[in-house]
Design brief:
The strands form three sheets. Strands 1, 2, 5, 6 and 7 form a five-stranded mixed β-sheet that branches. Strands 10-9-8-11-12 form a five-stranded mixed β-sheet, sandwiched between helices. By secondary structure, it is of the alpha/beta class. Helix 2 packs across helix 4, helix 3 packs across helix 4 and helix 12 packs antiparallel against helix 14. The chain starts with a helix and ends in a 13-residue tail after the last helix. Strand 11, helix 7 and strand 12 form a beta-alpha-beta unit.
Length: 416
């Protein structure tokens, strides 16, 4: 079976003919000549309508998907058209190319799909191309996907921030977390009020007013914007951040008390006890379990803080908002009487955000920010897989490509 026969089967376009295929002089690539079908009209690249011809340019090379270890190029002499609608002379539009890019659409989609599985550098090495061409391929696919994606009805969103570079450089990420679909909707630089407001501007009022649930942490700029833009939505506070803050407070109590005992010359019973106290009890090894049991016999601030921390997860077992609220009030009251300042700070914060915490139960425990944490982990894996990115634009493309679930350009054949 000849190569032109294969191309006609998988990469055929109306108005164009594959003329012949030959090896390049160095025998490292295959060159396929393409010409316009006799009597076919050229298409204006601006208005996408048929236009009369004007002249021809020099032959261009379009890189196609490699075949059996050979590079493949489509050779075509571009025509210029005198478009009366646009009132100017422009280069024609060809169905296999995109503007001035040197790669075919099929090859760009092929590289972009592999760039979702591998790092961009590994993709470039695997197909003997450059990192810049992989970037161009992903940019083409992501730009097309963002222009053609359908947002539809969005019931639940989750917002969180992740650090993407040294020096407290953060991204604000907004996800759709509906039961049937989870995807990245929008991302912006920094975690400020102005940054988060950009999401609502991009989505439009019609979509924003239909949002029913919003999940976030206790970062005040996010809370303020949500109160302004989604006042009718049920705002659910992130339970995972609450647990993280409580663990941080417990560790602070342990470290301070260990230093005080060392200054007083007392036995270092808290030495190497950090993970005994922070790990969940069911995840402890046997030797850790027995050491923790011995440690809990001492009357220490660290022990009291640990017992408060261990009692708090009982809150999530409730189904009724009223009973959950009663437990939360009692826990906060007990913590405020403990005279342990880091834990008292947590209790004050929980009291301040009491209604947002109870919204988890009002939503019948159906919406949780656990999905957001999972998507954040995928975003971090994407960044770690490539050991970081050079610019924000590259990072933006990579995250939309990995997490956006964007539609892809349609081709005449699926090249895997």
């Amino acid at each position: 079976m000849e190569l032109i026969t294969i191309l006609n089967r998988c990469h055929r376009f109306r108005g164009f003919v594959y003329q012949h295929a030959r090896f390049s002089p160095d025998k490292k690539s295959i060159e396929v000549s393409v010409r316009p079908r006799k009597g076919s009209a050229a298409i204006c690249s601006r208005c996408h309508q048929i236009a009369p011809g004007y002249d021809q340019l020099a032959e261009r090379r379009f890189e196609f998907i490699p075949l059996w270890g050979f590079f493949v190029f489509l050779l075509y002499t571009m025509r210029r058209v005198n478009c009366r609608r646009c009132g100017t002379v422009v280069v024609e539009e060809v169905p296999w190319g995109d503007g001035k890019r040197s790669m075919t659409k099929a090859y760009m989609l092929f590289l972009a799909r592999w760039a979702r599985r591998l790092s961009w550098k590994e993709t470039a090495d695997a197909f003997r191309t450059s990192w810049d061409k992989v970037f161009d391929a992903v940019e083409h696919v992501v730009t097309w996907g963002l222009e053609h994606r359908k947002l539809g009805l969005i019931d639940a969103i989750g917002v969180d921030e992740i650090q993407y570079a040294k020096g407290h450089k953060y991204l604000t990420l907004v996800y759709q977390i509906d039961p049937g679909i989870t995807r990245l909707l929008w991302m912006g630089k920094e975690r400020t009020i102005e940054s988060f407001q950009g999401f609502f501007t991009a989505m439009g009022e019609e979509i924003v007013t239909r949002i029913v649930f919003v999940c976030s942490d206790m970062w005040e700029p996010y809370l303020k914007v949500i109160r302004e833009k989604c006042s009718e939505a049920l705002h659910i506070l992130d339970r995972f951040h609450i647990v993280a803050k409580m663990n941080k407070a417990l560790d602070e109590v342990r470290a301070e008390e260990a230093r005080r005992m060392q200054r007083e010359g007392r036995a270092p019973i808290l030495r190497k006890s950090r993970w005994l106290l922070l790990k969940r009890s069911e995840n402890l090894r046997d030797e850790q379990y027995f050491r923790l049991r011995d440690l809990l016999r001492y009357n220490l601030k660290t022990v009291r803080a640990y017992l408060l921390k261990e009692a708090f997860p009982q809150l999530w077992d409730y189904s009724s908002p009223a009973w959950a609220g009663k437990f939360l009030d009692e826990w906060c009251g007990q913590t405020m009487r403990s005279r342990i300042e880091p834990m008292k700070k947590i209790a004050r914060s929980l009291r301040q955000h009491r209604e947002l915490i109870l919204n988890y139960f009002r939503a019948q425990k159906l919406i949780s920010s656990g999905v957001v944490e999972g998507l954040n982990n995928k975003a971090k894996v994407t960044m770690r897989k490539s050991y970081g990115f050079r610019t924000y634009r590259v990072l933006e493309l990579a995250l939309y490509h990995s997490l956006g679930k964007l539609p892809e350009p349609e081709l005449t054949h699926d090249f895997f």
